[in-house]
Specification:
Layout lengths: L1 E9 L4 E10 L5 E10 L4 H17 L2 H4 L6 H11 L1 H9 L6 E4 L1
Antiparallel strand pairs: 1-2, 2-3, 3-4
Length: 104
């Protein structure tokens, strides 16, 4: 079993990222399943789409099989950012017209 944890980070006055994390209840380890980027203006249908993708990823594959687990939540996020550094930099440099973006 897993506990879902959302961790938010403001990047600037128009951009935020939500890290979709899980804690494995058997041992307390943490992992980051994906990251959702939000740009103003935010549209409701895009928020629903990201929520649906989050659930689909969880149902398709257990979070601890999809990604590495770590003893601390901060460590899991740091490793996720390191693994996807190129993708994250590209997203931060080029805000999409859609208002939202998912990295998984």
């Amino acid at each position: 079993m897993f506990k879902a944890i959302d961790v938010w980070k403001r990047l600037d006055t128009t951009t935020a990222v939500r890290y979709r994390c899980f804690q494995r209840l058997t041992d307390g380890q943490f992992c980051v399943q994906s990251a959702d980027y939000y740009y103003l203006p935010i549209r409701e249908e895009q928020v629903r789409s990201l929520d649906r993708q989050f659930l689909e990823l969880f149902v398709e594959e257990a979070p601890d099989e999809r990604c590495e687990v770590y003893p601390r939540l901060e460590e899991a996020i740091a490793m996720y950012e390191s693994e996807f550094a190129d993708d994250l930099t590209e997203l931060e440099d080029h805000q999409p017209d859609s208002g939202l973006k998912k990295i998984a």
